[in-house]
Amino acid sequence: MATTVKENSKITMRDIAKVFWRWQFTCEMSNSYERMQAIAFCFAMIPVLKKLYPNKEDFVEALQRHLVFFNTEGTIGSVIVGMTVALEEEKVASDGAMTGESIIALKSATMGPIAGIGDTIDWSTIKPLMAMLCLPLAAGCSLQGIADAYGFALDTLSAMGLEVTQQVLGTREQGADGITGSYQAEYTDFRGKEVIFGNASLGDKAGRKITIRCQMEIAQGEARLMMKSGTEPARVLCESSSLYRETISLPDAANYIWVEGDSWTGSIDLDVT
After folding, report:
1. How far is residue 210's CA from residue 49's CA, in Å, rounded to a whole number?
2. Counts of helices then strands in the chain (DSSP H, E)
3. How many angstroms separate the CA atoms of 69 and 36, rounded?
4. Residue 145: predicted pLDDT
5. Which of 20, 93, 172, 211 has CA atoms 20 to 30 A from the CA of 249?
């Protein structure tokens, strides 16, 4: 069947926007056990098909082509809709070189992999994270619930990159809470960082106090004893050959204590109680 095309048949961004929003609003609304999202896909394509196929027979044939079984993840699945728009335009421009069967085959071949990607990102990642943030609000139904959830998210993000070093150069005895214990070590030309104590979720009530005692010796290079609590900036506890002692009130958040050095030769004797 010869395909007739309107003179102004080029697809515009306005046409693509119509297709996009039609798909986004209906992709999860028209599911059936027989053809799943086929009706939504066909409905989304109508603005483009009308422009490409002014002949009624060609238009009906195109509609039937997009009423075959189709099922994918709705959000990422819009990629397939966009590819199909391009293929329909190519079908018209190529005067039959691109066939309707080829378009159906592409949709069938891509809907499974795209669904796998979309389900992983949307349903397995984004939605659980949003639920984690919103559950405190549902439990408390208060602005404080929002603040607590938001603070927890910030605290988690701020702790990224901080993890207690499993194999330290010295001798460590760590308490059950992760933040208390003792550590003794001697360093020779040490460069880097060792996270000695810490826990991303202490479960402690705000205001718990710990006492930090540190005897540091710096024979060569530079060394620092550091601490970070929650979303507060990391601070230097000790950076010279001296005896440091301080009692600190911990927030109800992640807390980490680490030592870092730059060509450091010396020793450290640390107790956290």
Report:
1. 70
2. 7, 6
3. 6
4. 59
5. 172
Structurally, at CATH architecture level, domain 171-272 sits in: Sandwich (2.60)
Helix (H, G, I), strand (E, B) or coil at 219: strand
**Distance (Å, whole) CA 125 – CA 119:** 9
pLDDT higher for 1 or 238? Answer: 238
Beta bridge partners of 190: 264
Tell me the per-residue pLDDT of 74-117, one tens digit each, with 9 for 90 and over: 889 999 999 999 999 999 888 778 899 999 999 999 999 998 88
Q: What pLDDT score was predicted for residue 180?
A: 86
This prediction has a pTM of: 0.48
**CA distance linking residue 181 with residue 272, whole number of Å:** 5
C-alpha to C-alpha distance for 253 and 150, rounded to whole angstroms = 13
Query: Which pLDDT score is estimated for 4?
Result: 44
Q: What are phi and psi of 175, to 5 degrees?
A: -70, 170
Report d(CA 75, CA 5) in Å as an integer. Answer: 31
Query: Roughly how many angstroms between the first and final C-alpha of the chain, as a whole number?
Result: 85
Half-sphere exposure of 17 (CA within 13 A, CB side): 3
Delimit the domains of the chain by residue range. 13-121, 171-272
| CA 112 – CA 222 distance, rounded (Å) | 56
Q: Which of 86, 7, 19 is nearest to 47 (CA)?
A: 19
- What tokens appear for 77 in the block? 């699945």
H-only helix segments in the chain: 13-26, 38-52, 56-65, 78-93, 100-118, 127-140, 143-158
50 or 156: which leads in pLDDT: 50
Report the 10 Å Cβ neighbour count for 246.
Answer: 12
